[in-house]
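call fold target=dihydroorotase
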Amino acid sequence: MKLKNIPFLELPPTADFHCHLRQDAMMEFITPLVKEGGCDTIFVMPNLQPPITKVADALAYHEKLSRLAPGVKFLMSLYLHPELTPATIDEAARTKVIHGIKLYPAGVTTNSQDGVLDIEQYYPIFEEMEANDMVLNLHGEMMSSPPAEFAKADGTEAITVLNAEPKFLPHLYKLHAAFPKLRIVLEHVSTREGLEAVRLCGRTVVGTITAHHLWMTVDDWGCGDAFNFCKPVAKTPEDRVALVRAVIEGSGKFFFGSDSAPHPIQSKKGPGNAAAGCFTQPWCTALVIGALEEGIKQGWIKEEDIRQASIEGFLSRYGREFYRLEGTTEQEGPMIRLERKGEKIPPVVRSKDGSIEVVPFGRGKEVMSLSWIW
């Protein structure tokens, strides 16, 4: 497919299987922007304050989001926490609204301070998830200063943001071996090692890839641009190339999860540590297509390697099939259309009353404009 010569591209709506929609005023501002990115299905992260650990709270959150973005299918998740019990998993599975349980190693990213210290502690939960065919969603990073429970599998080598994902992979292998029927997602894969780990595991293990990791390397955030700082951080040029190639490999092992994570501008550039997260939601589909065009330009992939089916698979079909959503084989209803109109991502987006400002990833970058075809 000669992307650069195509004036427009029509696709099924994008399904985003990893998205942060926050709470309160930020939620009210961000959630209606979901469809601007071409998405009609969103898997919602539970790392609010406090984290969503109860079924009733997840259902209440679902109701709020559905009110703000009618016509979008929100898939909810629970935060893996000592409050969860096997009975909680049974209750969640019956809702048909809660589709996954999110594992955050304690302290690795935004609002993960209540996360996991000992994975084996949750084996009864994973057993019940396997029985109920629920998905385990892994934030696959070790902590930079891990407790002994996490350090045992990794010897004495220091853990940094650059090797935190590869250092986590023994836990992925161990979980997959212990629960071979448990569906597991290694979220926001950022390294060649992470991609290969997903490929080496069975069909019940998949990975999501973000739009921003397709565009960045360590230099883009390590040289002072706090708005490019995310967790996991962008890695090497070789990792970026491997991620771009994985998007179009057509194996069904990888699909889209934006990890779009809005933060107020003050928390990204203010004193202290910058908040981790890139906000991509209103341009997420266009950013993926743009990354493929850039891949062709740089010679990482060839035009003939890109097919309509592989783009649709990554952005829409593979994730819906893995989550066993209805209507995954025959896409009916609206489509999205991307056209070249010279649109550029703005330097900032603001709420109507001006009280919230968020700097989007890729500000100033030219992207295809998106519209819906009904």
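return ok
Residues 164-178 form the longest helix (15 residues). The two ends are 25 Å apart (CA to CA).
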